Amino acid sequence: MAKSKYTPDRVQTIIDAIAQTGADRAGWQAGKISEDTFYDWVKRYSEFSESVSRAKDEYRDTCPGTLVRQARKAFADYLFGRMERVTYTKETGINARTGEPYEKEITQRVPVGVPKWAIERVLGKPLDILEAVSTLSEAGVLPRWLVQAVSDEVGNAREGITEVFAGVIPDRDNRRVRPGLSEETAAAIRAHLLGIQPTDATALPTTVDLRQ
To answer: What is the model's pTM?
Structure first.
């Protein structure tokens, strides 16, 4: 009498192949059995039929296409305000009319906003304004002269910010507001923050009046 091919190891090989591909063909090929034998086992062995069905469900739940669709749906729910955080609490007390104690469950639903990282992952991080103008200019959407104009404005803004910073922590030797700090003042500030005595003790006052 021929030995049956229906063995636990062969069945597991078949089920694993179907779970990875979602295809019956992959199963019978992996198990080295014929198509007729495969479907005969599906009819004859209920546990085999159930295992095949579970393997197909597993594939549908984990295949790349399904995961992408689920991720897009979840993001859309976030984006359009359909995502909620649900909390359940219990309230207890005494009924003012009957004097009987009561307990009721309170459900609170709070919309969950879209996390910034999710938007950046899908739409990309915001472009620097100069980079955006340059890109549009190269594409012929904006004129070339606008790139230089924006570059000048950005440069002026940066200089203004530097001057404001220098005004908050001025040079001790020269209180005139100017962009940037001297090397001596910068070194003194670093030493002060690190708790190191500067080489020139007069380079930084004991206290810095931030109101100046």
So the answer is: 0.38
CB 185 within 8 A of CB 172: yes
In the predicted model, what is the mean pLDDT of residues 200-210?
Answer: 45
- In sequence order, what are the beta bridge partners of 86? 109
Q: Which residue in the block uniquely carries the two structure tokens 């190191």?
A: 196
DSSP 94: E
- Is residue 83 within 8 A of residue 77, CB to CB? The reply is yes
Question: Which residues lie closer than 8 Å to 118 by C-beta, 6 or more apart?
Answer: 75, 78
pLDDT tens digits, residue range 135-165? 777 877 778 888 888 888 877 877 777 777 6
Question: CA 194, CA 204: separation in Å to the nearest integer?
Answer: 13
Length of the chain: 212
Q: Which residues contact 62 (CB under 8 A, 6 or more apart)?
A: none
Q: Say if residues 57 and 74 touch (Cβ distance below 8 Å).
A: no
Residue type, 18: I
DSSP string, 75-107: HHHHHTT--EEEEEEEEEEE-TTT--EEEEEEE
63: which residues sit within 8 A by CB, 6+ positions away? 22
187 touches 181 (CB < 8 A): no
Domains in the chain: boundaries: 8-62, 66-111, 129-194
Q: What are phi and psi of 6, to 5 degrees?
A: -80, 90
